[in-house]
Amino acid sequence: MYLFCSLWEFHSSFHCLPSWRVDKKDLWPVNMYPPKFIAVHSYIVYTFISSKITLQYSPKQDVKLILVFDRYPYEVIEEIADFITKGSGMRPKIGIICGSGLGSLADMIQDPKIFEYEKIPNFPVSTVEGHAGRLVVGTLEGATVMAMQGRFHFYEGYPLAKCSMPVRVMKLCGVEYLFATNAAGGINPRFAVGDIMLMHDHVNMLGFAGNSPLQGPNDPRFGPRFPALVNSYNKDLINKAIEIAKAMGIESNIHVGVYSCLGGPNYETIAELKALRMMGVDAVGMSTVHEVITARHCDMKVFAFSLITNKCATEYSDKKDDEANHDEVMAVAKNRQKACCELVSRLIREIHLASA
Ligand SMILES: O=P(O)(O)O[C@H]1O[C@H](CO)[C@@H](O)[C@H]1O
Ligand SMILES: Nc1nc2[nH]cnc2c(=O)[nH]1
């Protein structure tokens, strides 16, 4: 354990150094036993400097130390993308991120090739109920797609760059369109539980606090140092989704609005919800924004929506009903999965037909 602590501290002091190219052989788990420690120490140090890396101590395997990336160099992302494209024999065009309880979006995929997160090299694992932890690649309405059945959240202890790393994997797999979905609390008083809010903008509360998935050295192979975020949410896709909702007869349940991401895992206080409302926020959650930032940085077209799973109280009261809880979030997502699936599949069909 001493080894772990000393290396952790060492790594912390290298945060600000520019990222270096990492040789593939450095990316695999390193077995370290005390007598060999000195020999491999410099090897590990080199890898620390190459990228921001933390070490995980695995009690099951004696003194085995596993390198875990916090900020992923291009080559590592490339390697993960190769693993998926070679393993599936596909280059998907549309990427889907399933929100809490919305894993059924991925169940629609035909001829699925399924990758458990824990079997994908250098991939994080899902720790939240309602996020299965599988990447599903296949076809949907004729289009090639890949879907994350389970996303990574900041509150799980993952840095933002790691939460949104799969978006870069999608990009290198060939994805042009990102569909990001989430479960969210409705702050806009016009929203009812079960409604769908198409995101047309966001307020990045984690960004206000100085946190971004793009922090650290910029690799121009992904995108520019200073990406613009106006028009992040594709207007054509929003308009098409509204048309689809009309055709589905659910237009009264569809809104267009502003989402805000907080760090979680706690839900908001009344004072925070009042403040968010004053800022023009319509729905609040703990995800999506950093994925959208990463997608726009690498020039993907973005469509995102929030399923309103609970109404946020903005007045003080003693009512237990006013308290958000994850069971309710999951239950509402389950009830509304059919409408969400239909909206997504019809929109994908339109994209596919338009590009055929
Ligand atoms: O944003 P998704 O992953 O849909 O999940 C939302 O629901 C969970 C809280 O109930 C949080 O994880 C929040 O972010
Ligand atoms: N932050 C936050 N996330 C949610 N996810 C689902 N509902 C909520 C909510 O009310 N607040």
TrEMBL record:
One of its GO terms (biological process) is nucleoside metabolic process. Pfam families: PNP_UDP_1. It comes from the Eukaryota. SUPFAM superfamilies: Purine and uridine phosphorylases. Its EC number is 2.4.2.1. Gene3D superfamilies: Nucleoside phosphorylase domain (3.40.50.1580). This is Purine nucleoside phosphorylase. The lineage of its organism: Eukaryota, Metazoa, Ecdysozoa, Arthropoda, Hexapoda.
